[in-house]
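User: What would this chain look like folded?
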Amino acid sequence: MTRYADIPKPIRSGIVVVDPERGTPQRIIVLQFNPDALERSVSPQAAGGEGDGGGGGSGGGDKNEALRLKGPAQETWKITAELDATDQLDVAAPHGIHPQLATLEMLVQPTTAKLREATRLSKNGAIEISPIEMPLTLFTWGSKRVVPVKLTEMSVNESAFDVNLNPIRASLSLGMKLLTVSDLPAGHRGAELYMAHLAQKERMAGVAAQGSLGAMRLGNRDIGLGR
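Assistant: Here's the prediction, encoded as structure tokens.
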């Protein structure tokens, strides 16, 4: 007889808000359901400029720079998360999924305390007020993908409500830009986490099965190696 207790529980993806100075988690957001898809877009930072200039080999970039990179690739991720209060009928939810939505939305909002402090400095004649700095945000997709990110877009589709108009079901689309050593100052905890993520990617590439020219019906001479 099958024992359901023996079935391993799936690892949940989520978001961790970290104090960049102390490295301690300030808030942990575990996604209720793992998204069905993770859309990733990777754009290399080529040193030779944008594009190849079209046909005829008349590109405007420096030919000596064609195979050079000026930094880590720019990468964006997109997911759609589902939230559903009806999945937890045994748990009291007087506010529906308002708290979960508010927690996610506060990832892109300054706190009222920081806004009041900026207003106070302005009234006291501060010549220049620095933009409000947000905590370091990490997106986790299993142990092999823990990356520092900046949320670039968020859209919410609330599709069901209780009698008090509290949302009880919604889908949330999140767009994120991975923060690299090109985006963060040297020594920043987020930069170190990105380097760890890149090192993990290198390890995964190292264990990939090696292909062969024969599988592509090619020999060394076909690619200019040997005679």
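The chain has three helices and seven strands. If you want, I can go into more detail on any region.
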